[in-house]
Automatic annotation (TrEMBL):
Keyword Membrane attached: yes
Keyword RNA-binding listed: no
Membrane-spanning ranges: 15-34, 55-74, 80-106, 118-141, 153-170, 177-196
Organism: Streptomyces murinus
Name the record gives this protein: Integral membrane protein
Coiled-coil intervals: none
Region (Disordered): 236-255
Keywords: Membrane, Transmembrane, Transmembrane helix
Length: 255
């Protein structure tokens, strides 16, 4: 374990990336716990206000992201300064992406249906950073044996193939499959081989003159969404909290 840690984390200079990812995930988890306690009126935590203005946590998040980002650029990846800057950057990024939906919609949608986009942004970001962290670095590691070079070449070839398949899956409108397929073998292959979603770039390019294929894609997307959307929402609710009911959808509400 110690040899692997030195070879794949310390020597390639990946320790700051690991610290940033850990700080990012922990910040998101802690922030969601605190906001859910505030929402429920439990615990000592309260919203921060200044002069009647509610201060969203994206504000200190932006400051920490800027400080940590510039600090990381100015620091050595192998030094304590780079590690500290990475932690600061990870904390700031966690606070910012936890309110990604607010930035996207330019309004407070934290506990609304649109607020789910923040959870998706955090999960996808963590997955992509995890891919960078898990990937082997052929450069920056000295004195590799022939066996290590062979293993790394195989891994790099697999990552490249998964990346191409992920691009195909992405063009077919399968965003989550594309992202996780770049990490988990064969997931991207499944997404690349299956029918594209009817509103995807692939469908517009290749199904335009194939009405049967477009009809099959539409039907499959309908059944897929009907089966998996409730489960996906349940997972998002467990991670980020259940959104407030939409007044327009309540009995007697406007539609």
């Amino acid at each position: 374990m110690g040899h692997w840690w030195v070879r794949n984390i310390i020597e390639p200079g990946k320790l700051p990336l690991l610290l940033a990812l850990t700080a990012f995930v922990l910040t998101f988890v802690v922030t969601r716990v605190i906001t859910r306690l505030i929402r429920a009126g439990k615990g000592p935590f309260r919203n921060v206000s200044a002069g009647g203005l509610h201060i969203h946590h994206v504000v200190p998040g932006v400051v920490l992201t800027v400080v940590g980002g510039f600090g990381a650029v100015a620091s050595d990846r192998h030094g304590a300064g780079g590690a500290l800057a990475a932690v600061v950057f990870g904390i700031g990024a966690g606070l910012v992406l936890d309110e990604f939906a607010l930035i996207l919609h330019l309004q407070d949608v934290y506990w609304t249906e649109e607020g789910r986009q923040s959870v998706e942004a955090v999960v996808l970001t963590a997955a992509l950073v995890g891919l960078l962290l898990a990937g082997f670095a052929p450069f920056g590691v000295n004195d590799l044996t022939q066996e290590e070079l062979t293993d790394r070449g195989t891994v790099i070839a697999n990552i490249a193939a998964n990346f191409v398949l992920s691009l195909v899956a992405l063009s077919k409108g399968k965003t989550r499959t594309a992202v996780f397929g770049a990490i988990v073998p064969l997931v991207a292959l499944v997404g690349a081989l299956r029918l594209a979603r009817p509103d995807s770039l692939w469908a517009r390019r290749f199904y335009g003159r194939r009405p049967r294929a477009r009809a099959r894609a539409t039907l499959r997307a309908y059944h897929h969404d009907r089966r998996w959307t409730p489960r996906s929402r349940a997972v998002q609710d467990w991670i980020g909290g259940r959104p407030d009911p939409d007044p327009a959808r309540l009995p007697g509400g406007r539609r």
